[in-house]
């Protein structure tokens, strides 16, 4: 039964999140290219670099728990990214494209926030203090990115799309 305990669940979630972050690294450049405003392109560029660092943090967590960094297929992130691609394609060239891209990006962010929040709680429960610190740093970045996207949408992108 040891392979179905909280540590095993933590490892599975870690692999899922690792897969998701690597998928996001591939998706962000396409999103940045589709963006119409420099501010949104810039936000996606900043988050791309953050995501690369988040992958490095996840690799550190794997190392801390004596495991090899590897992903397990994450159908949730695949679906979220596919949905974002679909909407971006449908609204390409229209005044609402950046609003669509922000909505897709925030779906990704909210998924990541839930994953990192869960990983953080489990790391604390398992006494993985150093791993918890790394996970918390990423969680804060994800929450900040979500807030930046919200502000960009509310202050500029949504009003422009509605005009």
Automatic annotation (TrEMBL):
It holds the Pfam family DUF892. It comes from the Bacteria. CDD domains: YciF. Transmembrane segments: none annotated. This is DUF892 family protein. It comes from Alsobacter sp. KACC 23698.
